[in-house]
Design a protein that fits this description.
CATH topology: Immunoglobulin-like
Oligomer: single chain
Largest sheet: 5 strands, mixed
Structural class: mainly beta
Distance between the termini: 10 Å
CATH architecture: Sandwich
CATH class: Mainly Beta
Mean pLDDT: 97
Helix content: under 10%
Number of strands: 9
Number of helices: 1
């Protein structure tokens, strides 16, 4: 199926509409930007999958979520420096024939993730 993500704003109880996200392929300390995008009304990639089954490869990836920018755009007063700026999730794909869903639950002060279905 490929690779997908979904972001929920746990402070407001809504999808993280308008959050900036970047997807990288990683090799050691080297990053290759694959795409950057803005989350849609459902807190998801506008075209659905980030990478389809044919494009997903075994290896390491990073999703970088602009958490501080998102909450500032929602009018949340953040301290300087803010606690969370960009949340980067580094993860591995061991089986490119499987679906990898990487959700993020986030507030200005905390986040959690897991491998979803």
């Amino acid at each position: 199926m490929g690779l997908s993500t979904h972001v929920l704003d746990t402070m407001h109880g809504t999808p993280a509409v308008g959050m900036q996200v970047a997807l990288y392929r990683t090799l050691g300390h080297e990053l290759t930007l694959l795409q950057s995008f803005v989350l849609n009304q459902d807190g998801r990639h506008p075209q659905g999958m980030l990478l389809d089954k044919a494009s997903l490869q075994v290896g390491c990836y990073r999703l970088a979520f602009d958490v501080a920018g998102y909450f500032r755009s929602r009018g949340v007063q953040l301290p300087e420096p803010n606690f969370l700026d960009k949340v980067s999730l580094d993860f591995g794909v061991a089986h490119a024939d499987q679906h990898y869903h990487v959700p993020l639950l986030v507030s200005p002060w905390s986040y959690s993730t897991y491998r979803g279905s």
